[in-house]
Amino acid sequence: MNRNVVIPILIIVVLFVLVGTFGWWMYKWQYSKADSILDEWAKKNNLTVIKKEQANQSGTGPGVRYAGNTQVVYRIEVKDSENRLRSGIAKIGSESTGTLSDEIEVIWNE
Predict the structure, then answer these.
(1) Are strands 85-92 and 72-79 parallel, antiparallel or unpaired?
(2) Count of structural domains, the chain
(3) For the segment 38-89, what is each residue's pLDDT rounded down to a tens digit?
(4) Residue 3 burial (CB < 10 Å; 0-12/13-18/19+)?
């Protein structure tokens, strides 16, 4: 194969791998940060998180149904100091900056 063809192909492959790796890292970081925000919120409110799961179906993107696309949204179940269970939706991060913001909004099920 001609060297003039191989070098641009290698550059494209390396760039593709770098962009993909960065995207994967950002995805992992976003959910890790959301988990720590949720844990800190629960601690401040004397709650224990019993269960959390992503609130949107796979492939729909974070928060399509309940929040902005940059927010992480969980269905949560918590236990208070008197062992009462509550459940609801936790929207973590702001609509514009996502988990770069430490905002959290919990909408309790009635």
Answers:
(1) antiparallel
(2) 1
(3) 999 999 999 999 999 988 655 444 444 454 567 888 999 999 999 999 999 9
(4) exposed
Look at residues 59, 65, 66, 90 and name the one whose alpha carbon lies nearest to residue 77: 90
Domain, as residue range, for 11: 3-108
Q: CA torsion sign, 82 to 85 to 88 to 92?
A: positive
Q: Where are the beta strands (DSSP E) in the chain?
A: 48-54, 72-79, 85-92, 104-108
Query: What is the arithmetic mean of pLDDT over 19-43?
Result: 92
Give pTM, 2 decimals: 0.77
